[in-house]
Amino acid sequence: MLSEILTFIFFLLIGLEIREGIKRPKEIILPTLCALGGMIFPAIIFLSLNPGSPAWAVAMPTDVALGIAALSLLGKRVKPAVRLFLLTLAVADDFFSLLIIAIFFRNDLHVDSAIFTLGAASIGFVLPYREALIKILAPFATFIIIPIYIYINLLTKLDFSVITETISLSLVTARVIGKVLGIALFAFLLNALTHIKLPQNLNLREVTGVGFLAGMGLTVSIVIAEITLSQPAELTQVRMGLFLAAIISGISGILWLRFFADRQ
Q1: CB atoms < 10 A from the CB of 42, how many?
Q2: Helix (H) or strand (E) run with residue 58 in it
Q3: Alpha helices in 73-178 (DSSP H)
Q4: What is the CATH number of the domain that holds 12?
Q5: CA pair distance 178, 45, nearest whole angstrom
Q6: Helices 80-104 and 64-72 sit at what angle, rounded to 10 degrees?
Q7: pLDDT tens digits for range 110-136
């Protein structure tokens, strides 16, 4: 029951953030398209290693709370523009993740799953006083909801004996490589070939660092895994893959931004 309540509040916050992001359409075009690239590439890599596996969507979501937490370790070494890009990208990522659940896995959604995911996000989308609610719920989600949810649904169920299994290693490969490749490549191509440009206070090296941090995805990925996978053995491998990918992506992103990002 606790897990379901936490999931409801988390997806309520996602709905609030998505609706608030729509208020700034010009500012969200580039990170939104980069988020799309950062979802397509991991899915392609995962499916190429596991043809036909329903777990492909697990490789796609980003966890904004984990990314921001990792970014905060760098303090003032990175510019506010980097944090804003990561936030916007993650919100767009959440939106696309909800679409994927609704389009590709609607037949797998039980009533309770639908209520605690799509239903909660829909409620958040239409609620008034969004800015005030986000200010209240965002730190609550970051420091309480997500840690408890990850502990209940991931850390207590980790099985290191599956660390070398196919799904575990495929998720690590898809997320660690696919996320940064898709985000950085889309940013480069959009900036070079279209009128959609990077902000003047943000460069491609910093976007690449954000791409690494985007490989940290646990909360939404676990929800998708529980919706799409029926075999306990597959869920066990997914949890291990997500855990390893989050650690590797977080360390890679911190080190990259530590050495290659422009200082304030």
Answers
A1: 33
A2: none
A3: 80-104, 111-114, 120-126, 130-140, 146-153, 166-173
A4: 1.20.1530.10
A5: 7
A6: 160
A7: 656 666 677 888 898 889 988 899 899
